[in-house]
Every structure is written in structure tokens, then in C-alpha cells.
Amino acid sequence: MDRVAWVLEAAARAPGGVTVAELARTLQAPASSVQDLVNGLVATGFLLEQHRRFRLGPAPHVLNLIAGRVVPRIGQAELDELSRVAGTPVLLTVRVGLDAVHLARGGEDEIPRLVPLADEHVARPLLRTAAGRLLLALTDEVERRGLLDELARHDPEAVAEFRSALPAIRASRISRSEGLADPEVSALAIPVTEGAVVTGALVLTHRRRGRSERLFLDRAAARLLAHIQERRT
Fold it and tell me: What is the DSSP string of 35-69?
């Protein structure tokens, strides 16, 4: 399963597709085994083959449609507008397994090293990001319990801290990170919803200089939530 997941991500990240030889070299696996694997993924629609190069196919999207899972659809112009209203950069984020992944960003980022994390959709540990903590907190209880059991194998201290913060996050529907992922970054996350379903999170970021960032981000989130509510009514 790890190999399947890696092959799909490699194909998704390669604009021109990826060859069996390239996959085999990176996986350190026999080309014949990798060929059998990609053949099965092509047959089931997870990969598309063209000129012996493999790209991501439509099957992952179709499975999301069948499951009724909606990927948040916020265009660049709208993200930039949300950033203008908030007065801070905005990141659109989803949960992928045990990671948080930024789909897009709006506004001018005052912390340049965060830009490639969004533009290259780099996976980040759930419990080390404001968005990850929010999305985990708002996940179905049974699924959340299983995810926390898995996370506890790798970072029991972070899981214990998250469990203590969980009631407050669920009650407020806001999550914070005060330097969890980056000691110089403060972040606050609010949910993106489709009806009653949480599909992702919007993250507001600010350079961390002292306690003033908390009030700054609180005010930014309040403006953003009011703006979103006004657009819905």
C-alpha cells in the first residue's frame, strides 16, 4: 500500500508523467514489480499511460464523488479577496491521511519560506499545524479515534496535548499554532464548510514576535468569518 500511495503521488507531481524506470529507481524495487503495479493502476483508472509515461488518472476523483467527499473549491480571486478582508495571508488546507496539505494561498505572504509549502503542496504533520489540529478535531469521532491511535505510535506527547485541547477546539471551531510547525510563525485556522460538512480549513498566518499576534489573528478571523457569513446571506 505504501508503494501504491507513493506511485500515485509521484505521478501527480510529475507534469509530464513518470516512467517505470524512474519509479523503480526511487522505490529501489525491480522494474518488473513496478511495471506490474502500474499496470494494475492503469487498468483501474488510477493512472493514465501515454508514451510509456504515467500520469494520475480520474479514479481518485471519482471515488471522492461516490463517497460524497467534497474538496473545497475556492478560486484564486476569492482567496485573494479573503486575504484582503483578513489583512493577512490565507492558506486553503485539507487533511490527507495523517497530514495537512495546503491546496492554495491568497495574498502576499510575509514569510517567504511558507510559499513553497503551499505551492508544492507539502504534507505536514496534523498535530503540528493549526489546520491539521482543527480538521482532526472536527473529524467524525470514530475516525478521529483511529487516527489518534495511529499518531500516538509516533508522537504520544503531541497526542496527549491535543486530547486536552480537543474540547476547546470543537467548541470554538478555531485552532491555533504558536510556533508548533515553525518557531517564527503564529497561525489560526477556521473551517471551510459545504452545508454541514467540513471540507477543509482556512489558515491565517503572521510572523511571531510576541503575544500581540494572538489578538491580531483573532481580529483577522473575526473579519473573515463576518465576511463569509455576509456572503452566504
Answer: HHHHHHHHHTTSEEEETTEEEE-SHHHHHHHHHT-
Q: What is the pLDDT of residues 137-193, one digit of tens each?
A: 999 898 899 999 999 998 999 999 999 999 999 999 999 998 888 888 899 999 998
Model pTM score = 0.77
How far out from the chain centre does Cα 129 lie? 10
CA distance 24 to 179: 38
CA atoms of 170 and 137, how far apart (whole Å): 6
Integer Cα distance of 29 and 126 in angstroms? 30
- Closest of 173, 165, 156 to residue 224, by C-alpha: 173
- Would you state the cell numbers that stand for residue 222, as one nine-digit string? 473575526
d(CA 145, CA 105): 30
Angle at 153 between CA 148 and CA 154, to 5 degrees: 100
